[in-house]
TrEMBL record:
Residues 35-489 form the K+ potassium transporter integral membrane domain. Its main location: membrane. This is Probable potassium transport system protein Kup. It holds the Pfam family K_trans_C. It comes from Glycomyces harbinensis. GO terms for molecular function: potassium ion transmembrane transporter activity; symporter activity. Belongs to the HAK/KUP transporter (TC 2.A.72) family. Residues 503-656 form the K+ potassium transporter C-terminal domain. The lineage of its organism: Bacteria, Bacillati, Actinomycetota, Actinomycetes, Glycomycetales. PANTHER family: LOW AFFINITY POTASSIUM TRANSPORT SYSTEM PROTEIN KUP, OSMOTIC STRESS POTASSIUM TRANSPORTER.
Length: 657
């Protein structure tokens, strides 16, 4: 089943995708510009974790503090290194990013792969995993709200290492920076990446240089590269290490954004930027901070900024602030991708989406999501006021999403790739064991703030599944009212004398070839006038990012006489903007009874549905009100389908849910 729509949101598609890869074109080589752009958009979050991760782990104000001693420092640094290596380098970069949906990545792309062709007992498992994946996507949206708040706050708080008297400017400065960040989103990922990429090149260079300087003061920290220190820390001091895991998660925040942003730049630029620039830089910096803490336990507070000489701390503060702004960009662009895919797959209303690049289809801007995120981030800043308070809430959203992605990936690896069960049992068991250990540790922070991302995720999940169910209810009632299309056309031909024929082309947007559009029924019933050329158009959203032009249209003639009625199916990928007039220009005259469609003067008819709460037991009353409230954010249909305003007629009707 493909998604079909006229003025409603497309339903989830289950048809197989076109297997031709159509991700960002690299011309056979990875362009340096894409790598730099990826540095500016994708890696900001994970690349700024060194600012706050270690000091959070050893924070004496933590409900379960980790004592500062040499054994614990070696163990924590080793644990960070191996956690980032396994989860980010091996799993996300080495494995998960190969599970793309025609170039698009992220949890929504995995959900599409899981839902495709489930059969037998596997169908129930696929639907269960898809529902779990929706919750993971909801958690990621929660992460998208927390990341900008904690990232910018943590950097601006660096002013305290310069002068304690500047503490009063932290909140106002954070607010100004966040508002400016969201204000520039409409310029597009490519432009933002062009600005941010060079800054992040300097940032990662600074991370490496500062880290090397710290290591030079205590080279013994390099012993933490051995996994034995991480193992000894976890199993030798499990009571301490278990609670520390909840903060170690902060070292790989941004891993899911890395995956979700794959459609913006492609797999190769992201993976190479990580392996050759980002990973070595953050590793060196964690090592340098560990060396500083070994030298003096008092260095735990502000260990990142203390790596720099005192004269360079103000420039480092400015650079760190810029980098954390860019860190917020990683999850913002990822949230745009997730929301757009959720909308096109039927889990959210149709949203207004602006494609900001002619070369890279995955680069988009979603205004409604942008302003919702900005409002949410500002609320978090005013409510929590410090990065330490937000840190308790941060890890749950991150590790929850990562665990769900791991489950979806293992299913895809088995069902689509035929990976042997023993390989999945060994590799998948190890991966899930690590994820679940982190998840269990993060759950200990629920009463200390980790409830927040769970609440945000639960709200977003409820909205998405309610919208999906409500759409199904409305679609069923609408199909009943519309009635069979062929029977309607046959009746129209038989009662032709009752409807006056006028010259011109009328395009009625419908939901498919099986039912007659409500607008067509209403126009003929109330005006008794029909155009000599009628096009019934259904738009299908395929579960692939883009559809080739040669596969765009399917044309069927419904009436073979001088007054032609044809049905056109226009197919678009879920990352495309459905431009209906442009698509119809590909209809050949021989497909429309030998006459070319007069699209320059064609009139377009849309069916607008007004929803009302009814008595039918379709779902709980509160969910009906939620569904109707959510429908109000639906983007304008004429704008969405690129219809000419001066030749678009909207015909209204109402449906009870």
């Amino acid at each position: 089943m493909t998604a079909q729509t006229d003025t409603g949101t497309p339903a989830p598609g289950l048809e197989p995708p076109l297997d031709t890869p159509r991700g960002p074109s690299l011309g056979g080589t990875v362009r340096l510009a894409l790598v730099v752009g990826a540095l500016g958009v994708v890696f900001g979050d994970i690349g700024t974790s060194p600012i706050y991760a270690l000091q959070t782990i050893f924070n004496p104000g933590d409900p379960h503090p980790v004592p500062v001693n040499s054994a614990n420092v070696y163990g924590v640094v080793s644990l960070i290194f191996w956690s980032v290596t396994i989860i980010v380098t091996v799993f996300y970069v080495g494995l998960a990013m190969r599970a793309d949906n025609d170039g698009e990545g992220g949890i929504m792309a995995l959900i599409t792969l899981v839902r495709r062709h489930p059969v037998g007992r596997g169908r129930k498992a696929a639907l269960t995993l898809a529902a779990l994946g929706i919750f993971g996507a909801a958690l990621f949206l929660g992460d998208s709200m927390i990341t900008p708040a904690i990232s910018v706050l943590s950097a601006v708080e660096g002013v305290k290492t310069v002068s304690s008297g500047l503490e009063a400017v932290i909140i106002p400065a954070t607010v100004v920076i966040i508002v400016l960040l969201f204000a520039v989103q409409k310029r597009g990922t490519a432009v933002i990446g062009g600005w941010f990429g060079p800054i992040m090149c300097v940032w990662f260079g600074a991370l490496a240089v500062l880290g090397i300087g710290g290591i030079a003061r205590n080279p013994g920290i390099l012993r933490a590269l051995s996994p034995t220190y991480a193992i000894d820390f976890v199993f030798g001091h499990f009571g301490i290490a278990f609670f520390a895991l909840a903060a170690v998660v902060l070292a790989f925040t941004g891993a899911e954004a890395l995956y979700a942003d794959m459609g913006h730049f492609g797999r190769k630029p992201i993976s190479r930027a990580w392996l050759f620039i980002v990973f070595p830089s953050v590793l060196l910096n964690y090592m340098g901070q560990g060396a500083m803490i070994l030298e003096d336990s008092a260095n735990v507070s502000g260990s990142f900024f203390l790596l720099a000489p005192e004269l360079l701390r103000i420039p480092l503060l400015v650079l760190a602030t810029a980098a954390t702004v860019i860190a917020a960009q990683a999850v913002i662009s990822g949230a745009f991708s997730v929301a757009a895919q959720a909308s096109e797959l039927g889990y959210l209303p149709r949203l207004r989406i602006a494609h900001t690049s002619a070369q890279h289809f995955g680069q988009i801007y979603v205004p409604w999501i942008n302003w919702l995120l900005m409002a949410s981030v500002l609320v978090l800043v005013f409510a929590f006021r410090t990065s330490e308070a937000l840190a308790f809430a941060y890890g749950m959203a991150v590790i929850g999403t990562i665990t769900i992605v791991s489950l979806l990936f293992l299913y895809v690896a088995r069902i689509r790739w035929g990976t042997p069960k023993w390989v999945l049992a060994l590799g998948g068991g190890l991966l899930l064991g690590i994820d679940l250990l982190f998840l269990a540790a993060s759950s200990t922070k629920i009463v200390h703030g980790a409830w927040l991302p769970l609440l945000i995720g639960l709200i977003a999940f409820t909205v998405m599944v309610t919208w999906q169910h409500g759409r199904a209810v409305v679609t069923e009632e609408r199909q009943r009212r519309e009635g069979p299309l062929q029977a309607f056309v046959d009746g129209l031909r038989e009662s032709k004398r009752k409807a006056a024929s006028v010259p011109g082309t009328a395009v009625f947007l419908g939901r498919g070839k099986d039912t007659a559009p409500l607008a067509l029924r209403s126009i003929l019933e109330h005006t008794c006038v029909r155009h000599s050329q009628i096009v019934i158009l259904s738009v299908e959203t395929q579960p692939v990012p883009r559809v080739p032009d040669e596969e765009r249209l399917v044309v069927d003639a419904l009436v073979h006489d001088r007054d032609a009625i044809i049905h056109v199916t226009a197919r678009f990928g879920y990352m495309e903007t459905p431009d209906v007039p442009t698509a119809l220009r590909a209809v050949e005259p021989e497909q429309s009874e030998g006459r070319e469609l007069d699209l320059d003067r064609a009139v377009y008819y849309l069916s607008a549905i007004q929803l009302r709460v009814g008595r039918a037991p379709t779902m709980a009353a509160w969910r009906k009100h939620l569904f109707i409230a959510t429908s109000h954010i639906t983007a304008d249909a004429a704008e969405h389908f690129k219809l000419p305003r001066d030749r678009t007629v909207i015909v209204g009707s109402h449906i009870e849910v």
